[in-house]
Amino acid sequence: MRRTTFGVRRARLRSHRGAVSVLVIGSLLVGVGLLPFAAHFGAVPYTSPGGYHLLRASSSQSVNLTVSDQGYAPTNVAVNATANVTFHVRNTASEAQTFTIVDRNDTMLPFNDTPAQLNKYCWANCTRFANATIPSGTWYNASLTFPKPTTPAGVTYEFLSLVPDEYQSYPNFQFWGTITVNPTTGPFFVKIFVNATNALTFVPDILTAPSHVPIVVDVLDGGLPHTFTLDALSNDTGLTSGTSVGTYFASGCGLTTAHATLVNSCVNTLNGDNPTDPFVAQAGVYSFVCLVPGHFPSMWGHLYVGITPQPPSSVPQITGVIGYGYLALGAIVIVGAAFLVLMGQNEATRAAAAASHEH
User: Whole domain around residue 270: which residue ranges?
Assistant: First the structure.
């Protein structure tokens, strides 16, 4: 009786061990198959600079903004001066947010400012237009009038969230944006900002703008001399990290370039703004660089015109077809493991039946 009982246990143990091994192999195959999808859905969210909200001259204007756990959208808004602008700001984030507009035009606050520094600045310099707290799941509505700019290219005001650490989370998330205020007469412009920093970077290094609309890029400089040189050729494969930009374009700003450019401006005003001349571009991706020796390729960015920026590729190099293949194979192996368990149970049942018959 003991020998037969031991045989039953051994049959079960043998089937379970085999099933566990097969189950582990099947789970690994399924895991490999899920990698492309896990990388897609589980990666750190990529935040593009957002689309443009464009308005033509009218007596009343309405702008819809949404702030979520990933930031504001859209992040670039264009309005006309002197006419009322009604902002409808919806908070879909999981916590309260602020809609705060900086009083001073053509000013961007540093991303490395601490939450306390931002609050201190906005206590005195964010009172002219809006500085409202918006509870989660609610709307904020404000009717604002912006003064008429004295320059034909217009001026830009920054809006941001003062929730601690959100403004500082850029570029993973973007809790800030710009409002371009255009004159009520003359051509319609869109102005976008970029910082030419002393760390030899453009911040942000991804800009967006609409196609077939005059664009002005206002370059804010930290003090070092730079250039803002915008390639006239979209999707230019000739420009790589190993390119000698001094030869490819020119040896400095304001010069006639060997390779066509939309903009080639000097940037050398300490903590000042350097607006480019207006230009119009067709839809495409345009590179901008700094020609100062030693500043490229770290000072290299891209302007997306009429195109939504795509997130950087961070998924493993496994195609969806191969991923599905691994999923299918893993599922078959797991079914095999279940079959082994079932066979072991049947063997154990037969052994138990034999033992009962002998008894």
Answer: 190-307
Residue 249 lies in a domain: yes
Residues 170 and 101 in one domain: yes
If asked whether residues 173 and 253 sit together in one domain, one would say: no
3-state DSSP assignment of residue 331: helix
Same domain, 137 and 216: no
- Tell me: do 183 and 196 sit in the same domain: no
Backbone φ and ψ of 326, nearest 5°: -65, -40
CATH code for the domain in which residue 179 is found: 2.60.40.420
Report the distance separating Cα 234 and Cα 262, nearest Å. 11
Q: Evaluate whether residue 169 is within a structural domain.
A: yes
- C-alpha distances (whole Å) from 193 to each of 73, 164, 219, 222, 224 are 17, 23, 6, 13, 17
Length of the chain equals 359
Q: What does the pLDDT profile of the chain (359 residues) look like in tens digits?
A: 444 555 545 555 555 555 556 555 555 555 545 444 443 333 333 233 444 455 444 456 788 899 999 999 888 888 888 778 889 999 999 999 999 999 998 888 988 899 999 999 999 999 999 999 999 999 999 999 898 888 777 788 999 999 999 999 987 888 998 888 887 655 567 788 888 888 899 988 889 888 777 888 888 877 788 899 999 999 988 888 888 888 888 877 777 777 888 898 888 765 567 788 888 888 899 999 999 999 999 999 999 998 877 654 433 333 444 444 555 666 665 666 566 656 666 665 665 555 555 55
pTM for the model stands at 0.54
